[in-house]
Each structure stands twice: as structure tokens, then as C-alpha cells.
Design goal:
- The complex is a heterodimer.
- By secondary structure, chain A is mainly alpha-helical.
- Chain A has one domain: 434 Repressor (Amino-terminal Domain).
- Helix content of chain A is 57%, strand content 6%.
- Chain A has five helices and two strands; from the N terminus they run βαααααβ.
- A two-stranded antiparallel ribbon of chain A has the order 1-2.
- By secondary structure, chain B is an alpha+beta fold.
- Chain B has two domains: 1-85, no CATH class; 87-158, no CATH class.
- Helices cover 64% and strands 13% of the residues of chain B.
- In chain B, strands 1-2 form a two-stranded antiparallel ribbon.
- In chain B, a hairpin with a 5-residue loop joins strand 1 (40-49) and strand 2.
- In chain B, helix 3 (91-118) packs antiparallel against helix 4.
- The two termini of chain B are 26 Å apart.
- Classes of the chains: A mainly alpha, B alpha+beta.
- The interface between A and B is medium-sized, with 18 and 15 residues.
Chain lengths: 68, 158
């Protein structure tokens, strides 16, 4: 799954640490998500969408490999 | 997400403070077979199988309680170290926790199986003694190693 967390973060002009605080997770988790190493839960995804004030589908996109 | 089966973060430090000394003392007394007389007590037992006696349920045996005390301390403190929350416990940490636990169970049973097949008689008693603690020990090592790796990797990007 691809995500545009880094892009959305740049638009909002906030650091990983600041986003982590807003989303109530650790900075490592934000970092792991941006690197595509961790797929967040539905709850965290919804939190991120609310923080960035966008639809959830604008942040996350399915890839072919997600269907295997 | 709420994880109700973890202890608060502060118990981790308490766990380490008990675990390290009791593990060292436990290992030394085990190797030296140190059993001070003043710790010999008559204690209740669920099952008794005496060397030249009969077998029976429920009774009193004379036993040196040093190994029971140390074993209990090691098990309880390992549980605190293993299952206390991280400072920033979140869903990603939970995933690492689960993966480490599965890994520790696999490793523990791999070693136990090999020992079970190739170590016999009284030597196997040693395997069983260590096996009381290894599953938690493997978990603690793997989990903390993964967490420290994670903290290091997060230093890049910003």
C-alpha cells in the first residue's frame, strides 16, 4: 500500500514528531509508515485523514501487490 | 487502541532491577549448588515421589527454598520486563511485540526439541531448568533489539 503521508505533512508544514503527537503515536511509527514499512490500522488512518483534513483515500492507495 | 494485558511503563525499570541481580545470583548458586542450611524448611507439596519411598499426593517435604525464591523472582521480574508498556506504546510497537513473541516461541521450541532428542537422563534436568526462563528471555532480547533498531532507523528522515 502506498501513502502520501510525507506529502500531506509537507503541505501542512509539520515535522514527523509534530504529526506523531497529533496522531498520538510514536515518531518511529510515522517514520515507518512514510517508508512503507508499516501499514496503519483503520483507526490511525482515520486519525491521519482528520488531521490532514482530507479523505482517507487521498492518503492511501492500493497497489497490485496488495491483492496477492 | 487499548492494550489491557500490559503493565504500566514504570514497572519495566523495577523488573530490570530485580531480574539482573536475581539472575546472576541464581546462576551462581545453581552452578555451585549452594544451599544454605538456614533456608531448609518443611514445605507443602502437591506431589511427592521420594527416592526410596512411595509416591503420594499432598504432604510435607523438607526442601531448601533458595531456588524457589530465586526462580520466582526471576519469572515475575522477567514478566515485568517483557510485558511493561514502552514509553510510547502504539500499534506499531504492538506489532513488533507480537512478532517477537512468535519468534521467541519458535526459537524456544526449536532448542527444546533438539535438547529433548539429543540430551538424556539427568542432563536433561538442566535443559528443563533453563527452559523455565528461556522463552521470556528470548522474547526480551528480540523485542528490545527490534525496538533499538527502530529508534536508530528513525533518526534519518525528518
Amino acid at each position: 500500500m502506498k501513502n502520501s503521508i510525507k506529502v500531506e505533512r509537507a503541505k501542512k508544514n509539520i515535522t514527523q514528531a509534530e504529526l506523531a503527537k497529533l496522531a498520538k503515536v510514536s515518531r518511529q511509527t510515522i517514520n515507518a509508515m512514510e517508508l512503507g514499512k508499516y501499514v496503519p490500522s483503520t483507526v490511525l488512518s482515520l486519525r491521519l485523514a482528520q488531521i490532514f483534513e482530507v479523505e482517507i483515500s487521498e492518503i492511501f492507495t492500493l497497489e497490485d501487490s496488495d491483492w496477492v | 487502541m487499548k492494550l489491557n494485558y500490559l503493565f504500566p511503563n514504570k514497572y519495566k525499570k523495577i523488573g530490570w532491577l530485580i531480574l539482573i541481580p536475581s539472575a546472576i545470583i541464581g546462576l551462581i548458586t545453581l552452578i555451585l549448588e549452594f544451599e544454605p542450611n538456614y533456608l531448609d524448611f518443611n514445605v507443602p507439596a502437591i506431589f511427592i515421589d521420594e527416592f526410596f519411598g512411595d509416591k503420594h499426593f499432598i504432604g510435607i517435604v523438607n526442601n531448601n527454598v533458595l531456588n524457589e525464591i530465586l526462580g520466582t523472582l526471576i519469572i515475575l521480574s522477567s514478566l515485568l520486563v517483557a510485558f511493561s508498556k514502552e514509553k510510547s506504546e502504539d500499534e506499531y510497537i504492538s506489532k513488533i511485540r507480537l512478532e517477537s513473541l512468535v519468534w521467541a516461541v519458535y526459537l524456544n521450541y526449536a532448542i527444546l526439541l533438539i535438547s529433548f532428542l539429543f540430551i538424556f537422563d539427568l542432563s536433561f534436568l538442566w535443559v528443563m531448568i533453563f527452559n523455565m526462563f528461556t522463552i521470556l528471555l528470548f522474547f526480551i532480547i528480540r523485542f528490545n533489539w527490534q525496538i533499538s533498531k527502530l529508534k536508530k532507523s528513525a533518526h534519518y528522515e525528518e
